[in-house]
Design goal:
By secondary structure, the protein is α/β, with parallel strands linked by helices. 41% of the residues lie in helices and 18% in strands. It contains 25 helices and 22 strands. Strands 6-7-4-3-2-5-8 form a 7-stranded mixed β-sheet. A 7-stranded parallel β-sheet has the order 12-13-11-14-15-10-16, with helices on both faces. The protein has a 6-stranded parallel β-sheet with strand order 17-22-21-18-20-19, with helices on both faces. Helix 19 links the parallel strand 21 and strand 22 (590-596). Helix 8 packs across helix 23 (653-669), helix 8 packs across helix 24 and helix 9 (258-266) runs antiparallel to helix 11 (304-317). The two termini are 32 Å apart. The protein binds adenosine-5'-diphosphate and magnesium ion. Residues 473-626 form the Helicase C-terminal domain. This is ATP-dependent DNA helicase RecG. Keywords: ATP-binding, DNA damage, DNA recombination, DNA repair, DNA-binding, Helicase, Hydrolase, Isomerase, Nucleotide-binding.
Length: 691
């Protein structure tokens, strides 16, 4: 089950110059010290403690047999392969090797000539030649040589590093390392955990009679201890970063809130209860003398932008600047328009800075930022070297998961007059366990309520054989005064093909929807062309917008009530959810049509089913996490955070909570112990986390 985690997730450092070949291979596995070896636990176990007669061995299950070699040949049909005919007293067995070395042929021939026995481990199946094993593991043994007494560990390894060699190294590390417990007796008792030393020994060298099922399934108490330790290290490291940040100074943004109240008074809507709550949480943080680092989560359409605008007002009222960074031109520009419409009437100066501005305009925008423009909205252009802020007090990052750790740090560094407060927003809902685990160094606010009056979006799954009907539905929507998006397939391997698909689709649809105005927007358009197209769509001049995923995040055109996604099976769930969130923003009944190509793979079907059955982003994310594991969720962030190798956030949710509690207590009451634990688990990797 843990097989998918085979590639160790540790950030592999480049091996030091002059490292031996062995060291380099170990380095590839993230193993840089004896201690790393100690914590390199098996992926699974093989049972070599018994041999079974060939004819009694069940098929398609790992078994060990002991056979004599009777015949060795290289055959060419159906393809070139090494074939050894073997037998024991019960029957015959063919061994087949499609890739083999000359030395292997010799070895098998010697075994045949000298009558030596082979101990062979693998799965038997009924094959081309009869009962056969393909690419089994084998070794030649003396007559009557003893069988191992315990299960054999199988470790994650890399090309050129044999299991046997790795096993030996780890055995040595186990014998020579200090296995002292990082937790004391009382802590073990309270948490119902096994001692570390016993757990490590058991996992590397399981004793005879161990509960094999629990061991293979990572449910053995020894695994529980290791998983806990891993989670504890993660929590300690994130928590420590969090506390370190609280030591730093930031401007107190504690104005009475007159600007924010003015903004609220001129809105055409009232904040939802959830928006009010998160706004209070943010306002409280801003008033403190250390930098806020808060993640504002809220499903697509939950209304995060207005909350960010309120935060900006707070900074501005205190005489500081706010920066608002978004990941795409389209989105940043849309924010710029919306924020200026809200804030300029209050007398606030709003500047626009994007990479696509002509150089004179860009210079001017940079000068505005340097001269103290109260709010600066833009793309990555905000973090370029030639941008300076006079007094940056608040940095807002929209769709934060689209940015890397380094980019968010860059924005923070723009605060020449001190560290600015940071507000990060994300519509990719992060399941609770994941948030607790990977975002333990952030404070999290959640908007868990949509503004009232939204009609739910109907989702339909339609085979692309019925594409004509869907085109009819688009025409119908437009004739009823609505607008539609038509999202084109994503072709992973090639941005060019991707683009071509969008261009072709646009041409075809323009023909099929003759008489309607059909626009096209994709990532290769010049920013001003993109902006013009989006503006025309927002103004209703374009009725149907053919788009690639550039419209995935944040775009807000309330009159668009129909979204068609072609080849929906190729999209990630979070992406589909985001795309679907582009409609259902007005009062009109909205629909999202997921066109899929047949035949659908099993996972393809499972994924579309999740989107079809769920509208709650958190539930979708939870199920997605089950399908995919955490790696892709944390995205760019993972560069700074060790992925978990042993703990599983779904299965071990209880341990995540326990580890979090203990981490907090240790850092408060027993820092040396926390330090010892971190050294064992992060050792050479800790510096990576300081990013
Ligand atoms: P997201 O959280 O996805 O960024 P937005 O901030 O873009 O959502 O908000 C979506 C739409 O809902 C916008 O048009 C916004 O003005 C509107 N909106 C936000 N809050 C409310 C509210 N409390 N009542 C009604 N409409 C709201
Ligand atoms: Mg948004």
């Amino acid at each position: 089950m843990a097989e998918k985690k085979a590639g160790p997730a540790k950030a592999a450092k480049a091996p030091a110059k002059g490292a031996s070949a062995l060291q380099q291979k170990l380095g590839k596995l993230g193993l840089h010290s004896r201690n790393d070896l100690l914590l390199h636990f098996p992926l699974r176990y093989e049972d070599e403690t018994a041999v079974v007669p060939v004819n009694e061995a069940p098929w398609d299950e790992p078994v060990q047999v002991e056979v004599r070699v009777t015949d060795v040949s290289i055959q060419f049909r159906p393809r070139r392969q090494l074939v050894a005919r073997c037998e024991d007293d019960s029957g015959e067995l063919w061994l087949r090797f499609l890739n083999f070395y000359g030395s292997q042929v010799k070895q098998l021939e010697t075994a045949r000539d000298e009558g030596r026995k082979l101990r062979v481990f693998g799965e038997i199946r009924g094959g081309f030649f009869g009962s056969e094993m393909v690419h089994p593991r084998y070794k030649s043994v003396e007559e009557g040589s003893a069988l191992p007494q315990s299960l054999t560990p199988v470790y994650p390894t890399t090309a050129g590093l044999a299991q046997s060699a790795l096993r030996k190294l780890i055995g040595k590390a186990l014998a020579e390392s200090d296995l002292a417990d990082t937790l004391d007796e009382a802590q073990l008792q309270a948490l119902d955990l096994e001692p570390f030393a016993a757990s490590a020994r058991l996992l590397h060298a399981p004793p005879p009679g161990v509960d094999e099922f629990a061991l293979q399934n990572h449910r053995h108490p020894a695994w529980r201890r290791i998983k806990f330790d891993e989670l504890l290290a993660q929590q300690l490291s994130l928590r420590r970063a969090y506390l370190a940040r609280r030591e730093k100074g930031a401007p107190r943004l504690d104005a009475p809130g007159a600007l924010a109240r003015q903004l609220l008074a001129q809105l055409s809507f009232q904040l939802t209860g959830a928006q009010q709550r998160v706004w209070q949480e943010i306002a409280r943080d801003l008033a403190e003398a250390h930098p806020m680092q808060r993640l504002l989560q809220g499903d697509v359409g939950s209304g995060k932008t207005i909350v960010a605008a309120l935060a900006a007002c707070q900074a501005i009222e205190c005489g500081w600047q706010a920066a608002f960074m978004a990941p795409t031109e389209i989105l940043a520009e849309q924010h710029y328009k919306k924020l200026s419409a809200w804030l300029e009437p209050l007398g606030i100066t709003v500047a626009w800075l994007s990479g696509s501005l002509k150089s004179a305009k860009k210079k001017a925008a940079q000068q505005e930022a340097a001269a103290g423009a109260q709010l600066v909205v833009g793309t990555h252009a905000l973090i370029q070297a030639d941008v300076d802020f006079l007094r940056l007090g608040l940095a807002i990052v929209d769709e934060q998961h689209r940015f890397g750790v380094a980019q968010r740090l860059e924005l923070r560094k723009k605060g020449k007059a001190g560290i600015p407060h940071q507000l990060m927003m994300s519509a990719t809902p992060i399941p609770r366990t994941l948030a607790m685990s990977y975002y333990a160094d952030l404070d999290v606010s959640v908007i868990d309520e949509l503004p009232p009056g939204r009609t739910p979006i109907r989702t339909k799954l339609v085979s692309d054989a019925r594409r004509d009907e869907v085109v009819g539905a688009v025409r119908h929507a437009v004739e009823s005064g609505r607008q539609a998006y038509w999202v084109c397939p994503l072709i992973e391997e090639s941005e060019k093909l991707d683009l071509q698909a969008a261009i072709d689709t646009h041409a075809i649809l323009a023909e099929e929807l003759e008489g309607l105005s059909v626009g096209l927007v994709h990532g290769r358009l010049k920013p001003d062309e993109k902006a013009a197209t989006m503006a025309a769509f927002a103004a209703g001049e374009i009725q149907v917008l053919v788009a690639t995923t550039v419209i995935e995040v944040g775009v807000d055109v309330p009159n668009a009530s129909l979204m068609v996604i072609e080849h929906a099976e190729r999209f990630g769930l979070a992406q589909l959810h985001q795309l679907r969130g582009r409609v259902g923003r007005g009062a009109h009944e909205s629909a999202c049509v997921l066109l899929y190509a047949t035949p659908l793979s099993q996972t393809g079907r499972a994924r579309l089913k999740i989107i079809y059955e769920n509208t709650d982003g958190f539930e979708i994310a939870r199920q997605d996490l089950q399908l995919r594991g955490p790696g892709e969720f944390v995205g760019a962030r993972q560069s700074g955070v060790p992925l978990l190798r042993y703990a599983d956030l779904e299965m071990d949710a209880d341990l995540v909570e326990l580890a979090r509690d203990l981490a907090e207590r240790l850092l408060r009451d027993d820092p040396p112990r926390a330090e010892r634990h971190l050294r064992r688990w992060l050792g050479s990797r800790e510096e990576l986390l300081k990013a």
